Amino acid sequence: MIKKSYCRVVFFAAVLLCCSSAHGQVTGGFSGTVTDKSGAVISGAKVTATSQGTGIPREANTDEVGHYVINLLPVGVYTLRVESAGFQAAEIKDLKLQVDEQRELNFTLAPGTVSTSVEVSATQVAVETTNPTLGQVITSQQVAQLPLNGRDFVQLATLTPGTTQETSPASFFNGGPSSEVSARGTVSLSVGGSRVNSTDWLLDGSDNNELTSGGIAILANIDSIQEFKVLTYNYSAE
User: Using CA atoms, how far apart are residues 146 and 82, in angstroms rounded to an integer?
Assistant: First the structure.
């Protein structure tokens, strides 16, 4: 087996099916700290992340230092609401969570009754502050609207700086004789100058490598992909 040591390309395909089981495979989440106006932490506050697309909520409580974590959320748009007895509820809507993204959101609650709430419109996060990995998300809009030759989603990965496809027709990945990989199409990628067989492929967080040569095992149809991410440095544990 070929050791993957240079780069990792993570492709999370969110299959566009109605069944709920398709939603639990993409990692992402929210975390942060809840305090009052004086800066004191609030423990035991209930934090609810609700998908605006499905209406499915996920809840967590702040710990003794006022910190909360809600992980393993599928890609989507969320409303985050914080409630605690004796304080006004706070809510942020239209929070877009992308694949493999960890968003840090802190809340400051004002004194008041539980029937009073404060709503805040979300703003786009400019800098990733909770995840040390470097990479680029190819968004659902790019997947749906950019033209492709042969409907090969791998071409979109080359939008990431330093990422190229191998073009030699004699390549084992592109057309070599008896090649398991080339039979699937031109799906080779080099990231940051690394070898093509050093690229690691993940599909919904699971290994998707063709073991005889290190290429992609299952070439997902473009219609089954919501978005994906190309990691170029400081990869996560998986």
Answer: 38
